[in-house]
Amino acid sequence: MASSPDYSPDIRFMAFQSYLTAPHLFGQLNGLNYSFAGKTVADIGTGLGILAYLLKDKNALKIVGIDINKSFLKAARHLIKDKNTGFINANGFKIPVKDCIFDIVFARYVFQHINLSGDFISEIKRVLKPGGLLAVIDIEDDLNISYPDLPESTKNLFRIYSEYQKEQGGDRFISKKIPAFLSSAGFEDIELNPCTAVFFKGKDDGLNSAALKNAFLLVQNELGLVKKNLLDDKFIGPAEFHKGLNDYFKFLNMENNLFISKTEFIITCKKN
Ligand SMILES: C[S@@+](CC[C@H](N)C(=O)[O-])C[C@H]1O[C@@H](n2cnc3c(N)ncnc32)[C@H](O)[C@@H]1O
Q1: Does domain 9-270 have CATH number 3.30.2010.10?
Q2: What ligand 1 atom has the least distance to the C-alpha of 108?
Q3: Does ligand 1 have an atom closer than 6 angstroms to the CB of 45?
Q4: Pocket of ligand 1 contains residue 68 by CB under 6 Å
Q5: Digits of tens for pLDDT over the chain (272 positions)?
Q6: How far is the C-alpha of 214 from the C-alpha of 180, rounded, in Å?
Q7: 53 lines ligand 1 (CB under 6 A)
Q8: Is the CB of 244 within 6 Å of ligand 1?
Q9: Entry pTM
């Protein structure tokens, strides 16, 4: 029997996130109305290469996934075997390629971790061809809403997670800041496309919807990855952590007539 790699929790989380968001991402890529045929594409912060995977039948000349994390790329290479797709283990701040070689550069869910850095954006500009397109996809937690409102303990847990991410140099309220940043960096033709996932659970439906179960499992997994750090660094106590998560589960399971909406943005712009 072929041996399968022993994937770590962060790879398993990323795989789950990629699997759940792939249909959405596929729609966003098609919505770009961009002809990838013959183009050279970069995906900075590629993770497991979900974007490269979804583009593999679009006749791109070359797709290059770049990531700072070696183990993600090892998994990506295992998952995506395509002659036009390659992966480079590098920091997005210093990409080991010549100037002006990519027609289009993607950065999906990366700015939320590294924030808005001039050095990062100058590096993207350097590797883009003149007239090349940058497509940033990222979150905006200010636009995550529900009715009824989340339990206080869950709001508290999410707020603490957000503070933790900020302390690590990230920002979960990043999308609304990106257009001004790109404009200041000299990019042109900035276009913003909000992508909203909405969900309504009617009366007495219980947690029988895959969408809600998956939403809970994803959050549980994501928080599980940082739980030790949150507790060790005294961001939150164990009881508060578990109450926030359990109350979220109960909220999704018990609440009748539940409305949930989550918005992210795809922001495109051109290098002049
Ligand atoms: C939330 S994941 C998103 C992965 C992928 N883009 C996706 O949509 O599934 C963020 C990725 O950015 C990578 N990353 C963070 N900082 C980076 C940097 N400075 N240079 C390259 N990759 C980076 C991480 O290793 C991780 O794979």
Answers
A1: no
A2: 6
A3: yes
A4: yes
A5: 445 567 899 999 999 999 999 999 999 999 999 999 999 999 999 999 999 999 999 999 999 999 999 999 999 999 999 999 999 999 999 999 999 999 999 999 999 999 899 999 999 999 999 999 999 999 999 999 999 999 999 999 999 999 999 999 999 999 999 999 999 999 999 999 999 999 888 876 666 677 888 989 999 999 999 999 999 999 999 999 999 999 999 999 877 889 999 999 999 999 99
A6: 34
A7: no
A8: no
A9: 0.94
